[in-house]
Amino acid sequence: MKQMDRTRYAIVDLEATSASSLAKIIQVGIVILENGKVVETFESDVNPHEALSDHIISLTGLTDERLAKAPDFSQVAKAIFDLIDGAIFVAHNVKFDANLLAEELFMEGFELRSPLVDTVELSQIFFPNLERYTLENLARFLGIELLDAHTAIADARATAELLLHLQAKIRSLPLITLERILDFSDYLLFETRLIIDDIYRGKKAEPLSPELIEIGGLVLKRPHSFGAQRQLSQDFEMNLALLDLDKRPQQQLFSEKIAERFSDRNPAFIEAGTGIGKTYGYLLPLLANPDVGQIIVTVPTKVLQDQMMLGEIKRLEEVFNVSAQSLKSPKNYISLDKFLESLMTVDQNPVVNRYKMQILVWLCETETGDMDEIGQKQRFGAYFSRIQHDGDLSRRSFFADYDFWERHYQLAKMSKIIVTNHAYFLTRVEADKNFVAGKTLVVDEAQRFFLNLEAFSHRSGNIKTFLEEIEQSFNDVQNTLHRRLLEGIQFELNHLSQQFSDSGKQPDEDTLAQLRLYLKELELPILVELKKLLDKPFNQIWIEEEVFSDYRRLVLKSASLDFMSLPKFLPETQKTYFTSATLQIGHHVTVADLLGYEDYSLDSFSKPYEVSQKLFVDSSMPDIMEVSTRRYLYEIAERIKDLLLLDKPVLVLFISNKMMLAFSQILEEWGIAHLCQHRNGEATSLKKRFDRGESQLLLGAGAFWEGMDFANQNQLITVISRLPFDNPQTAISQKMDNYLRESGKEPFYDYHLPLTILRLKQALGRSIRRKNQTSAVIILDKRLVTKSYGQEIQESLSEQTELQIQSFPKILTEIGYFFDKV
Predict the structure, then answer these.
(1) Does the chain have fewer CB atoms within 10 Å around its N or its C terminus?
(2) Residue positions in the annotated binding site for ATP?
(3) How does pLDDT run across 759-788, given as a tens digit for each residue?
(4) Residues that constitute the known binding site
């Protein structure tokens, strides 16, 4: 046994017959690093004396024939041991490689006692913004060459380069940050902390970089400052040229209409097709107008808000020095006070301690403090809930002048552009009418703003979460009466849950009255959300069961059945614009009508006919109303199996999580690889993985209908599992039906059907976002053919792209021909 040399690293990668503890080694790759240089390498196939699975053959490129000629492990064991003995053992997922190699070496009489370092865990800490830490993903992020992934020597070389990048990143961090990190590094796997220790010991105390500042023992990135905004040209084309953008005729017309309508008193509704560049189309003429004050842009989701800030807004900042702020709910931002408090205790959960180290690194890099930047925060939401901002900041705080939320709040008052999302916009205006009063407001994707406005008249809360928070609070409540009241709330919530689980019974008025009585007497932070949910404006209260991949939850919901009018809710603005690809959603109904406007302008631009997209309706599918859900899903699965033979990416859209997850289970039983929302991750993460080609098949619901664009896919097949009608039994559907009837309209033909058409058009537009894209869309719901309203859907969709009604075998042939021809 050699004495350990802390400057020598053995970077090891193994390929094996499986990922289980019973796996056999089939290939070994080793790279020896000394003082940052590769001094030696080793690679060898190994005969496992068992057949490889198809998956391993596909993954590694190895075959049974090739391995039959390879040496047994016993023949290479000594060479491997001699090479790595005395070095620090490094691997990407070290537990697997070290355990497997140690077991095989032990059987040959060699004992592996090397310190073990895991580059996965180090990467999670020192590259905090990534969502996935596979070797391929890290190689892509860092520009590491990895031409033959899943061959041992190629992976070992890439891991060696990754280690060098990690060491460089650690060296770049301030000494104060490294000291804080080392407080928690004993919770890292095996001896992974050795890498940090060695760099820390050799690091000299130096002044902080001018970009950083130390406050309260935390190192933060200094706030970014803006100079004076450059004047934009009155010529739209000139501004496009300065942004290095090509001229688009539809975008030009759209921008002219934005400028023209500015002087009108009434709100302007402007309908323009997808893919014309609406964001620049409204921002450039508004920024060029000297009479326009602050511009507030609200978009449907936080995802689109982030995309806009990283895309169009960032470019406007670079070229014209436009000051802009992204504004979200306080809970999206880190509370530095709460985070510092969490550092004072070392949690027993190693995952929490790893997140603390990760955040210490992230604070040296983030300009926003928006925790959505942390790629894997959703994996341990409980900790991030502990450190999220609540909108309050003590002036005695260490961080009073550097608090992220406070900084955004103050800068938003002075910025030329504020970008927010529909949900937070409504919450903010409710609390502060001055937020938008007298300013220019642009509501992007206005049809979705209407849905958010409706959702705003709702409240919901997880009953289990309420009960857990009440249980945890008992230790902090000393007053006997208060404890009795908490126990009463706990009893009534359990009673509601039990009634619903046993018989589906909804809350009765007596129980709700008792809950309100208890809540009235208690002023505890944990009860604020429950109080809001049961408040008097919400005159309908019910329980719903929400289904996810590995759990179900009971959600208490409430809604106001009074129709919400946006003109009454919004204060007077300088100008308000509503833009969307579809504002007219029926012969008698517009989005403006649904929002409550009577006086408004409505302009519409012709939408280009999509020749690079084809729409098919499968006439051979069974009627969804006449067969079981299970049978219907099997019919879809058979078609997906055939579509995958075309070797094109396939997106399958569902209208319910329950149906999507049941379908995912069928695919798993059939051995069809796929990505499934909620089962394999959330929408944004899965879309990125799908775009990278990690899977040819993606199952999605919710955001995938309207909030996700597939501009990166040159060719895409979209499968719509069923028509996206609203559930007629929900409170919002019944509320809308009553409102429309009172307005002299027919709910189905004037609202539900147009809204379904709108959603279908939105889905069609997701895969045609730029030139040279080819898209095939298949609707599997036969009601499009058999029901009387199907003709109206067909006619509307045919205005956008070519529609064919055929049996599935013919559709399969047509799609193959269509993709080959284009």
Answers:
(1) N
(2) 272-279
(3) 888 788 777 666 677 889 999 999 999 999
(4) 272-279
